[in-house]
């Protein structure tokens, strides 16, 4: 090929390559490479070996003290959690409860709030001694602290004479339970099975339950347009363990094993709640402050009208549920004035015991949306005092704080 033909061929090739580039660019725009982002954000992945019971917000291990010889009944074993239940245990006259509640990540409770969507998954081992019952037996619940009925449950009922594992939810207005799905229990006992609970905590929420045995999906059911938000101020939280009636026949000593607990939130994490400051004035003692005693079901919860943004609820109604405010200082042994600040529903009463002395009744009257107060004399000793608030027969007011003057 002579020099002129060689130049012509190279020019033609360059023109063809340029044309091909233009054509390919027009036909297929450059692809934007963006990393795929999972909308589900992992919020909780505890280790029984590392975190133990600190993985949970609260521990309800024989809170009535009915079975002390075999305590503890909830404890980590390697990298799983074990829940023991003995036939003689009692959480009241007619039931048993060994449960953990809530999720804690790096020491901070994870709060399932309004209109949030969560997915919780874990593996469980149900032995044949933990059988379905004619009364209630629950192994997972979702509750809020200011209502007694659960929002949703995993239960072990007997249905048409057959032992089942069942997902269910409740309606608040009439406390009626609604089944989502049931699976025969017996083939799933004495082995590890996996479950996923996905829900939206909303007035118009949903609840989905998935149950797997290895690679087999045994249930994948969903209930839509259900009310899973019952509270104005509190938050939803899951509970794991054994909670059952003693009125069923054939109860046995038993246990439940859990492992590989995880929780995801759909979308970014919600910012923490901002609370007003507690009362730091002289003589003021917040009911929820660290070092106080919250016995039984009694616990601090949110309160928009309370100082510090919290109150303690579920005081009274039995011998178990009470609050003790500790660290009350007095420079002399004298009778001083105590002003109680509380949320009162109608007419309710505390019984008050100072430093273990005989109790006296303090009646209060008020409405749920306001803080009521009452002032009574209390005998204090020089130094440090403790005051117990209880009621053996009825629920007492929800305690905000006391002020000693």
User: Which spans of ≥5 residues are poorly predicted at pLDDT below 50?
Assistant: 1-30
Mean pLDDT figure? 91
* Helix content estimate: under 10%
* DSSP summary: helix tally: 2
Number of strands: 29
Relative strand content: over 45%
- Spatial gap, N to C terminus: 113 Å
What's the alpha carbon Rg, rounded to whole Å? 29 Å
What would CATH call the class of the largest domain? Mainly Beta
What can you see in these coordinates?
The protein is mostly beta strands and 405 residues long. The protein folds into 2 domains: 40-266, Sandwich (Jelly Rolls), CATH 2.60.120; 284-404, Sandwich (Jelly Rolls), CATH 2.60.120.260. Helix content is 7%, strand content 50%. The protein has 2 helices and 29 strands. It has helices at residues 3-27, 48-51; strands spanning 40-44, 58-61, 74-77, 80-85, 95-101, 103-105, 108-110, 116-125, 137-144, 152-155, 158-159, 162-171, 176-184, 192-201, 205-213, 216-226, 236-245, 254-266, 284-286, 293-295, 299-302, 310-313, 322-330, 334-343, 346-354, 360-366, 372-380, 383-390, 398-404. Strand 6 (103-105) and strand 7 (108-110) form a beta hairpin. The chain is globular, with a radius of gyration of 29 Å. The termini are far apart. Residues 1-30 have low confidence and may be disordered.
């Amino acid at each position: 090929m002579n020099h002129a033909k060689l130049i012509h061929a190279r020019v033609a090739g360059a023109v063809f390559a340029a044309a091909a580039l233009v054509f390919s660019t027009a036909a297929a725009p450059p692809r934007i490479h963006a990393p795929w982002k999972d909308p589900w954000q992992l919020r909780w992945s505890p280790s029984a070996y590392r975190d133990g019971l600190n993985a949970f917000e609260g521990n309800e291990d024989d809170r009535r003290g009915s079975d002390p010889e075999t305590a503890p009944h909830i404890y980590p074993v390697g990298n799983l959690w074990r829940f023991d239940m003995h036939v003689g245990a009692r959480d009241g006259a007619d039931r048993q409860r060994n449960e953990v509640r809530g999720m804690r990540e790096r020491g901070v409770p994870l709060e399932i709030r309004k209109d949030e969507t969560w997915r919780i998954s874990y593996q469980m081992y149900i032995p044949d001694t933990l059988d379905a019952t004619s009364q209630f037996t629950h192994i997972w619940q979702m509750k809020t602290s200011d209502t007694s009925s659960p929002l949703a449950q995993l239960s072990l009922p007997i249905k048409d004479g057959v032992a089942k594992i069942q997902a269910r939810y409740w309606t608040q207005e009439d406390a009626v339970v609604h089944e989502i799905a049931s699976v025969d229990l017996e083939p799933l006992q004495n082995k590890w099975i996996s479950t996923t609970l996905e829900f939206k905590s909303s007035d118009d929420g949903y609840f989905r339950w998935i149950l797997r045995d290895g690679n087999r999906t045994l249930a994948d059911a969903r209930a839509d347009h259900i009310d899973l938000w019952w509270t104005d101020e509190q938050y939803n939280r899951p509970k794991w363990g054994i909670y059952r009636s003693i009125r069923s026949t054939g109860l046995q000593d038993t246990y439940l094993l859990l492992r590989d607990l995880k929780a995801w939130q759909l979308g970014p994490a919600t910012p923490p709640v901002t609370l007003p400051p507690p009362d730091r004035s002289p003589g003021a003692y917040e009911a929820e402050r660290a070092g106080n005693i919250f016995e039984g079901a009694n616990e601090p919860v949110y309160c928009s009208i309370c100082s510090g943004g919290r109150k303690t609820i579920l005081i009274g109604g039995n011998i178990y549920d009470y609050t003790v405010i500790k660290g009350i200082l007095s420079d002399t042994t004298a009778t001083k004035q105590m002003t109680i600040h509380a949320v009162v529903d109608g007419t309710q009463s505390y019984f008050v015991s100072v430093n273990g002395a005989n109790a006296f009744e303090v009646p209060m009257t008020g409405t749920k949306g306001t803080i009521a107060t009452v002032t009574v004399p209390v005998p204090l000793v020089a130094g440090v005092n403790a005051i117990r608030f209880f009621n053996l027969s009825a629920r007492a007011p929800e305690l905000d704080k006391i002020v000693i003057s």
